[in-house]
Design brief:
- There is one protein chain.
- By secondary structure, the chain is of the alpha/beta class.
- The protein is 49% helix and 15% strand.
- Strand 1 (5-9) and strand 2 form a beta hairpin.
- Helix 3 (77-96) packs antiparallel against helix 11 (227-237) and helix 6 crosses helix 7.
- The longest helix is centred in the first third of the chain and has 20 residues, at 77-96.
């Protein structure tokens, strides 16, 4: 049914649904087709009375390398806004559904992939996982949730370091900063994610879970108040020569050309 994701019932307990990003030749980059497939799968899981938990992971060694630069480089402002709207509705549904959502991460988990993971309720990481918001390197904004949520999770100064330098974190660093709940060997990742899902759905009240998740969402909603503005600014940035130049250099593995930093005073 889907081209860029796999959707499977768990072989041990069919109350658990696995959604696996499956675009390995491009490190599972997010593009419009994949976003639409993710949204469709999440809506169906949300409506399915048999599903209690959703685990999002990847089929291949990388979790997600963020937005598809080749796709968004070609978009004008209006199409960029629509792309971001498709992206945002996926993130919002992860935060809104009354089902438990767990991210099981290995390999690269950066930019839009990292934002997707931050929207999940719980995160299990393999030791190979690397986390971060390197958008600033290619001239994008990290405003799909990175700029807004990172300060709430890790504190403002640590968030500034991550979004302003683009530095990536190891799984151990991400755990210490509170971005990850559990770390395991990569070959134990799915087993640990399943065990964590069962720990929740076998013990807790679904009604209470939904209410608590909704109340927790209230605090993160405060950070998201500027979402429409962030969407439009990001779409505008994507149309600039600087973004497109740096994205081309990044994709072609060229050294980035330093530019002047400008002030704001008249």
């Amino acid at each position: 049914m889907y081209k860029k994701i796999l959707v499977e019932r768990d072989p041990v307990d069919d109350r658990i649904l696995w959604i696996k990003l499956n675009y390995p030749e491009k490190m599972n980059v997010l593009h419009l087709e994949m976003l639409n497939e993710l949204y469709d799968a999440l809506v169906k899981a949300d409506k399915d009375e048999k599903i209690c938990a959703i685990i999002i992971t990847s089929k291949d060694r990388a979790f997600c390398a963020g937005a598809d630069l080749r796709e968004i480089m070609e978009k004008d402002f209006e199409r960029g806004v629509r792309w971001l709207k498709a992206y945002w509705r996926v993130l919002e549904l992860l935060r809104e559904t009354g089902k438990l959502v767990i991210a099981a991460v290995k390999g690269a988990c950066v930019a839009g992939g990292h934002e997707l993971v931050m929207m999940c309720d719980l995160v299990v990481a393999g030791k190979s996982a690397r986390f971060g918001q390197p958008e600033v390197i290619v001239g994008s904004t990290a405003m799909g949730g990175g700029v807004q949520l990172l300060p709430l999770i890790v504190g403002e100064k640590r968030a500034r370091e991550l979004v302003l330098t683009g530095r990536l974190l190891s799984a151990e660093e991400a755990y210490r900063l509170g971005l990850v709940n559990r770390i395991v060997d990569d070959d134990k990742l799915e087993e640990e994610a399943r065990n964590l899902a069962l720990e929740v759905i076998n013990r807790v009240s679904p009604q209470a879970f939904r209410v608590i998740k909704s109340c927790l969402k209230f605090w993160t909603d405060l950070a998201m108040l500027n979402w429409q503005l962030a969407r439009d600014i990001t779409a505008m940035v994507w149309t600039t020569e600087e973004f497109r130049e740096r994205s081309r250099d990044f994709l072609e593995k060229k050294k980035m050309r330093p530019r002047k930093f400008t002030g704001v005073m008249p």
